[in-house]
Amino acid sequence: MMNFTKTVLHNLCSKPVTRPYPQEPREYPQRTRGHIAVNIDTCIFCGLCSKKCPTGAITVNRAEKTWSIERFGCIQCGSCVENCHNKSLSMMQSYTQPDAVKNVDTYTQPTKDEPADQ
Ligand code: SF4
Ligand code: SF4
């Protein structure tokens, strides 16, 4: 009984150990492997990232100048980032948002007159 009272009093005087998510978004540690971002402006569509991806999540179309990724097929191994000689890929800290369908995100290199896809 004494132990129980001590625990209750301690918890009443302490800050909660949980976070009020999503009101207070989580700050990710610096080296978190969240999701892959592509700088489509510098991509040369060599396809090396696609060849080195162990899950086949990346598709590169050189003719149409598109770079695609199936987000839920990615296991955040970082192999594509390491193998892109152009440094067009980077690992971002935030995770892919949950979804009910497996979407493929496609990025198209713009012509000189139009802005890049986001
Ligand atoms: S390895 Fe880099 S430059 Fe080559 S297709 Fe992939 S992102 Fe583009
Ligand atoms: S991080 Fe790994 S699994 Fe994800 S796209 Fe890159 S190579 Fe493929």
Task: Walk me through the structure.
This protein is of the alpha+beta class and 118 residues long. The protein has a domain at 32-108: Alpha-Beta Plaits (2-Layer Sandwich), CATH 3.30.70.3270. It is built from three helices and five strands, in the order αβαββαββ. The chain has helices at 2-13, 48-52, 79-83; strands at 35-38, 58-61, 66-70, 89-92, 104-108. Strand 2 and strand 3 (66-70) form a beta hairpin. The mean pLDDT is 92. One iron/sulfur cluster is lined by residues 36, 52-55, 57-58, 69, 74-80.
Question: Any descriptors?
Answer:
118 residues, alpha+beta, Alpha-Beta Plaits, 3-stranded antiparallel beta sheet, 3 helices, 19% helix, elongated, binds iron/sulfur cluster
Write the layout of secondary structure elements.
Blueprint: H1 2-13, E1 35-38, H2 48-52, E2 58-61, E3 66-70, H3 79-83, E4 89-92, E5 104-108
Antiparallel strand pairs: 1-4, 2-3, 3-5
The protein binds iron/sulfur cluster (SF4) (2 copies).
